[in-house]
Predict the 3D structure of the following.
Amino acid sequence: MSEASTEDAGTLLKDPVVRLALITLAGLVLALWIARAPTSYTGNLPLIGDYVPLKLNAVYFIILGPMLASLIAGVLRFQAARRGRVQSGKLSSGNVGRDGIVLVIVFALIVLASAALSLQYFLTLAPAEMCPSRPHYDFLWTNVPGPTRITHCMSGTEEINMEAPYYLEPQILQSWGHVVWPVLTACLLIGTWRSWCRTRGE
């Protein structure tokens, strides 16, 4: 890689939109890995786990991950739309077209990771008695009656399931949320990319 290319990459990484997008993508990939390998994460936060009684596990990552992706996409949209966030000339590497392509690839990966995480809601989660009959796309038109704990149906997840949350009521809204969140994330990131390219091109 030439010195100019290295400098251009460094300049692009100074952009707060690009940095936050990359951090979001890394977080979603980690959440998806935990969702598919649920026993690999004990639920304790690194370094501060002994002091914080917060037991995040694979179920929480599946439930909250796509929602947080949409929230961060909204923050990215706001950052890109703010004309005065940073003088675009100071961050422009002179390769707005190439930088735009890099950013659209990162955004596409964010949407794919968010959609894959949402898909886990139907593939790996269910009430305990319904685990053998997965997947449960029928949750989009049927409700689980009464307060029901969410179960991660992969083997070896008994300890995780004791700390899992309950389905929201009506549960059908939670199910549709996992369709809406990736779509909302995609729409917000399309708007972000347009604003970002417009600002960088000025």
Observations:
- Residues 84-94 have pLDDT under 50 and may be disordered.
- Residues 171-201 form the longest helix (31 residues).
- The helical segments are 3-13, 16-36, 58-81, 88-91, 96-123, 158-162, 171-201.
